[in-house]
Specification:
It is built from eleven helices and twelve strands. By secondary structure, it is an alpha/beta fold. It has a single domain, classed as Thiamin diphosphate (ThDP)-binding fold, Pyr/PP domains (Rossmann fold, 3-Layer(aba) Sandwich).
């Protein structure tokens, strides 16, 4: 399908961020996804988050794989670099890009098919390496581009549009990420922008691998009675355990939530996340508590959402491997290729 550019209309009184840019400057091409697709809501939230954080569009990198979700890199941040990779291979491309230039903001957009089937190994190793990126997993439980087959995230007993019942257990990206050591794990719903936008902002500012698993219903193949990834089912059963407000270091802390305990978590950039806990005994800094919360709610048929776990103490991939902060494309040739003698000396060190 062909994407068309949106008309550029600068409203006289449009709100501007710290860079003097308007919300329109963070948009992209017109979406070719189905009307009502949850992915378009997620795209709007991503554009809003980048705008509110005043991130320069050309300093952001969007990387995706293959699938309906992976098309969305064309629909926001038209001035930034975007790359559709081979199916399931987005994490390795993002890893290489982050190693070559750690000073940019990386956001990966993927789906449950792209991440949990053909790309499962790549997904796991990006988490293990703690690549400094935000990984948006738009989860609808089906392969939308190939007409609605069950994906690896489809729940047992979930019915397809044709009436077929799924008998295979699902892979839960949230519990998988927790078991692999992810340092920022969240789950959200595309229909709850008030929760999703602060989570995206916090994930972008987190130092390390951040996963947001977004339940994003497919209106064409998985929005019917019997689907556990439909709008009706998610609205009925999703349980916001922890709401989050991202607060930049330059702004006064403000929050619209009154219920529950407030827990500020300081980020490496000086900003903070203010967590509003609806469950008094839940601590999002406790990995075991996150497991228990998800398992408890899952047993009740609920979809627990919010910032489920965060760890700001662990080094990201660049720090662990002592990578240069200087972009590799700025190095002169003689520094990048010091000659055969230097290579021989380097090889001896590994023998």
């Amino acid at each position: 399908m062909t994407s068309f550019a949106k008309p550029h209309i600068n409203l006289k009184h449009a709100k501007r961020n710290a860079l003097g840019l308007t919300r329109h400057d963070y948009e992209g091409a017109m979406s070719t996804l189905c009307a009502g697709c949850g992915h378009d809501s997620v795209t709007a939230c991503m554009a809003k988050a980048f705008f509110e954080l005043s991130i320069e569009p050309h300093r952001a990198v969007k990387i995706s794989g293959i699938g309906c979700s992976s098309k969305t890199t064309a629909y926001f941040l038209s001035e930034s670099h975007g790359n559709n990779t081979v199916h399931g291979r987005m994490p390795s491309v993002a890893t290489g890009a982050a190693a070559a230039n750690a000073g940019l903001t990386y956001i990966g957009v993927s789906g449950d098919g792209d991440s949990l089937s053909i790309g499962l190994g790549q997904f796991a190793h990006a988490i293990r390496r703690n690549v400094n990126m935000l990984y948006m997993l738009e989860n609808n439980g089906v392969y939308g581009l190939t007409k609605g087959q069950f994906s690896a995230s489809a729940d047992i007993g979930s019915k397809s549009k044709k009436g077929e019942v799924n008998l295979s257990p699902p892979i839960d990206p949230v519990t998988l990420a927790l078991s692999l050591g992810a340092t920022f794990v969240a789950r959200a719903f595309s229909g709850d922008r008030e929760q999703l936008v602060p989570l995206i902002k916090a994930g972008l500012k987190h130092n390390g691998f951040g996963l947001i698993d977004v339940i994003s219903p497919c209106v064409s193949f998985n929005d019917h009675v019997g689907s556990t990834k439909s709008y009706a089912h998610t609205y009925k059963y999703y349980h916001p355990a922890v709401h989050a407000d991202y607060v930049p270091m330059s702004e006064e802390i403000k929050t619209s939530y009154a219920a529950g305990e407030a827990v500020p978590v300081e980020l490496h950039d000086g900003g903070s996340i203010v967590l509003r806990k609806l469950d008094e005994d839940y601590d999002p800094r406790d990995r075991g508590a996150a497991y228990a919360q998800i398992a408890e709610r899952d047993a009740k048929g609920e979809i627990v959402t919010g910032l489920l776990y965060i760890d700001e103490s662990r080094e990201d991939m660049a720090a662990m491997n002592k990578l240069t902060s200087r972009p590799l494309n700025t190095f002169p040739y003689d520094e990048l290729c010091p000659g055969s003698d230097a290579l021989t000396a380097l090889q001896k060190g590994f023998r």
